Amino acid sequence: MQNPAQPPFLDLRVNRDFGEILTLYFVFLKRHFKPFSNIFIQYNGLFMIGLMLCSYLLVSGFSGIINGVGNMQMGVESEEVASSSTLMMVGVLGYVLIVALAAALNFALASAYMNHYQETGGETPTAGTLWRSIRGELGNIILFVLLAMGILLMTFVVGFILALIPIVGTLAYYGLMFFVSAWLGVSLFALISEKKGLGSALGEGWDLVMKSFWTCVGVNFILGILNYILLLLLMTAPGVLIGIYAFHQFETLGQQRMEELDTLIFTVGVGILMIAGLFQQALSQWINGVLYNSLHEKKYNLNTRRKIELIGQPETP
């Protein structure tokens, strides 16, 4: 039974039109932003530390290249450029690995969070509840993410070729990307919510998305842009402060070297940007969660039938 102190239950399993899907996403995001943020921090602590280390490697490598180039301009031989380039490469590889692992976890957490809310009639899940709901599916989730990375890579290649065609090719590229994003996101919900196998989940996702192609593409397009705007708003304060500092150091003072304080400040700034990107990535799965529930009900009408069957029956005390 729902806690009286909680807001009214948002039934996700309702066949909704385009505008209603957009509205539902923002209402759900507003209500669950804080509790999901707490869960995100609990599960992503190690990833955050790893991203800060990657940020340090990237910034240190970049600053080393700047310092090395500055030394060479003054006629001083330096091997700093080569060693710093290696640091940057290690930082990039570490970042890609962490993002891939974090994506598997966060997409699963976001999916399980929304699924738990729907199945329990509005209960806000805890971190432990989510872990118990996904640990049995971790193998399938990891396989799904690896397969999704391969599909996305092929999509980028096809999209790059399409983008060479003026205007029409660019529009086709973005349409393809938003379709693939919806397909994979809805398929992951099918895998977690219905406990389907990998192939069955992808087939279910394909069927649901293809039957409402333009709705899925449009919802991912609009809400994807708005999610990025949210990310930019979160980054406004640190971005402005770091920008002012950089302008003061490199323009006003004409500085050609990056010192330890510069490296520290830019490391924190880039690290915060990486962590915010992970969080935005997790929230984007809720877009496909709203789509999945609406499209599933549109196809099967299970929730509607259940409500009809309950009409006239006495309420359970």
Protein described:
With 317 residues, the chain is mostly helical. The chain has one domain (18-310). It contains eleven helices and no strands. Helix 2 crosses helix 10 (260-300) and helix 6 packs across helix 10. It is globular, with a radius of gyration of 23 Å. The termini are close together.
A few lines on this structure:
This protein is mostly helical. The chain is built from 11 helices and no strands.
Number of H- or I-type helical stretches: 11
Task: From the alpha carbons, calculate the radius of gyration and give it in angstroms.
Answer: 23 Å
Strand content: under 5%
Number of domains: 1
Q: Please give the number of β-strands.
A: 0
Main sheet, how many strands, which sense, barrel?
none
Class from secondary-structure proportions: mainly alpha
What is the arithmetic mean of pLDDT?
84
Fraction of residues in H or I helices: over 70%
List strands and helices in order, with pairings.
Blueprint: H1 18-43, H2 45-73, H3 80-119, H4 127-134, H5 138-163, H6 168-193, H7 198-211, H8 213-234, H9 236-252, H10 260-300, H11 302-310
Helix pairs in contact: 1-10, 2-3, 2-10, 3-4, 3-5, 3-6, 3-10, 5-6, 6-7, 6-8, 6-10, 8-10, 9-10
Task: Give short descriptive properties of this protein.
mainly alpha; 317 residues; 11 helices
